[in-house]
Write a structure and sequence with these properties.
Largest sheet of chain A: 5 strands, antiparallel
Number of helices of chain B: 12
Distance between the termini of chain B: 20 Å
Order of helices and strands of chain B: HEHEHEHEEEEHHEHEHHEEEHHEH
Oligomer: heterodimer
Strand content of chain B: 15-25%
Distance between the termini of chain A: 62 Å
Strand order of the largest sheet of chain A: 2-1-5-4-3
Number of strands of chain A: 12
Radius of gyration of chain A: 58 Å
Structural class of chain A: alpha+beta
Strand order of the largest sheet of chain B: 2-1-3-12-4-13
Chain lengths: 467, 288
């Protein structure tokens, strides 16, 4: 656009400059004729006058590159033709008669000129012309006027061809510019598009099957591509490692459970087998029977507990049954019954909305935590149960004033079969942990040695209810 | 300018040893095509070789200019028109030397010509039109058309709307061809010459009237020139048709040769001039 404007301005300027120059040329030619005109006219040397007009045509033809003389004439003071380049149409000795309105106007202007002037008509066109008008005098008496008219056709052609060249050049520049621009933009955008697509893939989580962005050149984009590829390959490696770790953790956990089950079941089994062996050897010894049967019973119950806990934990984990919150309050009686001969006070604070429905899993959580608290308190103490709503969470707090949890075992607290109690299965807290996790809840332990412990559980029940 | 060119050519012409004698000066008028400088160069070389003296052609615009040169003795010979020849001079300063022979006779015509595409058929059609004369001292280009008008009691300034002199038969033909003039009077020798060599010009004109024949424009010598030189020049010119180089030059001139003819050859022109002077005496008082 700017190119076109500059080109147009150049063409117009060229044109007006050439036009002015042509006007001056016409004037110069008229003046050269006018010098000899008065003398020749006085002598009636009409042939000489005609020849002076012919000469300017011949001279312009000879010099070449000149501009065509359309017409030229010498008129006397009355407008009578003294010489005309087209003598047949404009005979000598007759009043010059203009062919049309425009010619009439020009004649009036020419005849009233008291000094040399340049007239022009037709402007910027093939038919345009400039006319040099020079009045001539003899002894200060006005004798007539010389008019030489030059065509602007050649000028027009010149201006047209230069305009064409300018347009062609601008056109070429525009095409070359846009082609180059597109190429450069493509070169720049293509790697960026690849990086964007890569990032989108990351967003979708497809990191491992990510195809590296092609790297072209060592510019900023090239370096960006390299860095991006590095990040991507590191991310992919990290993810693979994480997956491997998760897998091996699962295997480890499974191994631990298997080992735990084997160990926990194997221990009483050895004792049970011993008892049975002894009883088989002495089938009629009532004393032995009375002594070993409770041991066998106890051992089998322990195995049953372990299996039950494992099964319960896994079974409840899968359940999405809902119960009313008041079911929780029944646990108070259940746990009070378990206190036995210990001197333990249970403080119960359920401040949650009574109409609230909660997942059935929560019962198991609360029961396990209460049971755990009950077991860690040696002889006497207090268990505090708090339940309340905080935002979308239902918060459960179970505190005891037992011996507290040493910091070195805090990491193993929720591991299966980890227990500090002589008769513990090590599965109670593990089940709690798994249930909390299955409900996207949070579990925290707060403990100070000698000052008991508090388990905080927060479950997003409101969201579940709303859903 | 033309004169300077001629001089230059003679100055630089080699091969002729410097001669103590002054050059012979030969005046030319529009009775022949004086534009052909190269021809004049060859002709002067021919004459120099034949005569053993340097010959210079001197060109002037009008017949009058050449007559003035002859009068003052600035030239020794001149090729003039029959009309100036028959005019009375007091005292006389020239004499008839030789007359060109054109198409078998020392005679030519005056042609009245018009543009070839015009409707004019006779001289009467040119009434109120523009007419081009050649030279006020020309027989064919001025005296004869005057005599044509005089026969009907007409005068050029009243019969024609405009008249002008071109001072050159060739230019009269051009003026008519380009329709600057509606008619013109020219030397038949020049018109035929142009018809052969410049048909694009002569072809644009058409002859509507051919005069009776007149004595061909003669070559005269100044009375002051010594008899030997006159004789030498006369013999040289009249024997041009006897050698190859001379014949070639004559062929270029479209002439048969030069010959000795009596003064009476120009009686027709003389009579015509006298009759014009009686009928329209001021017509010949042309100044330019």
């Amino acid at each position: 656009m700017v190119g076109f404007m500059i080109g147009a301005v150049m063409v117009v300027q060229d044109w007006s400059r050439f036009h002015d120059e042509l006007g001056e040329k016409a004037l110069l030619l008229s003046e050269s004729v006018a010098i000899t005109t008065p003398r020749a006219m006085l002598r009636k040397n009409y042939w000489g006058l005609y020849q002076s007009l012919k000469n300017i045509v011949a001279r312009r033809a000879e010099t070449g590159g000149g501009h065509e003389v359309i017409t030229a004439m010498i008129l006397d003071a009355e407008g009578i033709v003294q010489a005309h380049l087209q003598p047949a149409e404009n005979p000598l000795g007759l009043i010059f008669s203009p062919a049309n309105k425009v010619e009439e106007e020009l004649l009036t202007q020419a005849m009233s000129a008291s000094k040399p002037i340049v007239l022009s008509r037709g402007g910027f066109s093939e038919a345009g012309f400039v006319e040099g008008v020079v009045p001539f005098f003899s002894d200060q008496k006005y004798m007539g006027v010389v008019r030489v008219r030059l065509s602007v056709a050649r000028l027009y052609e010149k201006a047209k061809s230069s305009a064409l060249i300018v347009i062609l050049l601008v056109f070429c520049f525009v095409i070359i510019g846009s082609v180059l621009g597109t190429m450069v933009a493509r070169r720049m955008v293509k790697p960026l598009t690849a990086v964007t697509q890569g990032l989108e893939a990351v967003g979708r989580g497809e990191m491992t099957d990510f195809a590296p962005v092609p790297v072209k050149g060592g510019d900023e984009i090239g370096r960006l591509s390299i860095t991006f590829n590095q990040i991507m390959s590191e991310l992919a490696e990290k993810k693979m490692l994480e997956e491997e770790i998760a897998m091996s953790e699962k295997l480890i956990a499974l191994g631990r459970i298997t080992a735990g089950v084997a160990h926990e079941v194997n221990n009483p089994l050895a004792g049970l087998l011993n008892c049975i062996d002894t009883l088989q050897k002495h089938p009629d010894d009532q004393k032995l029977i009375d002594r070993y049967l409770p041991v066998i019973d106890q051992g089998l119950h322990r195995i049953k507990d372990i299996v039950h806990n494992l099964l319960v934990g896994l079974k409840i984990e899968e359940s999405d049954e809902n119960v009313n919150i008041e079911h929780i309050d029944k646990l108070k009686d259940l746990i009070t019954a378990e206190i036995g001969d210990k001197d333990i006070e249970v403080i119960w604070n359920n401040r949650a909305d009574k109409s609230l429905n909660i997942p059935a899993k929560l019962e198991q959580i609360v029961f396990n935590l209460l049971k755990n608290a009950l077991e860690v308190i040696p002889d006497s103490g207090t268990i505090i149960f708090n339940m309340y709503q905080e935002g979308e969470f239902l918060v459960i707090e179970v505190s005891d004033n037992g011996p507290g949890i040493p910091s070195k075992i805090r990491n193993q607290l929720f591991d299966p079969f980890f227990t500090t109690k002589p008769n513990g299965t090590g599965l109670g807290l593990w089940v709690v942990y798994r249930l909390v996790q299955s409900m996207q809840g949070i579990i925290e332990v707060e403990s100070e040695k000698g000052h008991g412990a508090t388990f905080h559980v927060a479950i997003p029940v409101m969201r579940a209810k709303a859903a | 300018m033309r004169l300077i060119c001629v001089f230059l050519i003679f100055w630089i012409t080699p091969g002729f040893a410097a001669n103590a004698e002054p050059p012979i000066r030969f005046g030319l008028t529009a009775v022949i095509l004086t534009e052909n400088i190269r021809f004049l160069d060859k002709w002067s070389q021919y004459l120099e070789a034949k005569m053993g003296r340097k010959v210079e052609f001197v060109l002037r615009r009008s017949y009058q200019d050449v007559m003035d040169l002859l009068d003052s003795g600035a030239i020794e010979f001149a090729w003039i028109c029959g009309y100036p020849y028959v005019q009375t001079r007091k005292p006389e300063f020239l004499q008839l030397m030789t007359v060109p022979v054109y198409r078998g006779a020392p005679r030519y015509f005056s042609y009245i010509i018009v543009p070839h595409n015009s409707a004019y058929q006779r001289v009467g059609d040119l009434e109120g039109k523009i007419f081009a004369f050649s030279d006020p001292d020309s027989n064919s280009g001025f005296l004869y058309p005057l005599s044509l008008l005089a026969k009907n009691g007409d005068k050029p300034e009243t019969f024609f709307r405009q008249t002008f002199f071109t001072f050159n038969h060739t230019e009269t033909i051009e003026a008519v061809a380009e329709q600057v003039a509606d008619g013109g009077a020219v030397d038949s020798y020049i018109w035929e010459y142009l018809a052969a060599f410049k048909p694009e010009v002569a072809g644009k004109t058409r002859i509507i009237k051919k005069s009776p024949s007149f004595g061909f424009p003669p070559i005269v010598s100044h009375l002051g020139v010594d008899a030997n030189t006159v004789k030498l020049m006369k013999t040289t010119l009249e024997s041009m048709n006897q050698d190859v180089a001379g014949k070639a030059l004559l062929a270029e001139l479209k002439l048969d040769g030069f010959g000795h003819y009596p003064d009476s050859l120009f009686n027709d022109i003389r009579a015509m001039a006298k009759s014009i002077q009686r009928s329209i005496p001021h017509a010949l008082d042309v100044t330019n």
